[in-house]
Write a structure and sequence with these properties.
Elements: E1 5-8, H1 10-19, H2 23-32, E2 34-38, E3 41-46, E4 49-56, E5 59-67
Parallel strand pairs: 1-5
Antiparallel strand pairs: 2-3, 3-4, 4-5
């Protein structure tokens, strides 16, 4: 992704660690996953997990990650 910054909330990092999901997988989910609009952002589903995030300017704020 060009000219964007991915920022991980503390909760997202904790959930990624707990579930064994890497930052590379999160990027793939945002780039290639099936995206759904939510009240405050988006949900990207990819493979066996989903990423909840919002876009603020050029920053992608990762709120949480969970296994589907």
């Amino acid at each position: 992704m060009k000219c964007i910054k991915i920022v991980y909330k503390k909760h997202a990092v904790e959930m990624m660690t707990e579930r064994g999901i890497t930052r590379t997988q999160v990027e793939f989910a945002i780039k290639r996953g099936c995206k759904f609009k939510q009240t405050d952002g988006f949900l990207a589903r990819y493979s066996y997990f989903a990423v909840a995030y919002k876009i603020v300017g050029k920053n992608y704020i990762i709120k949480t990650v969970y296994v589907d």
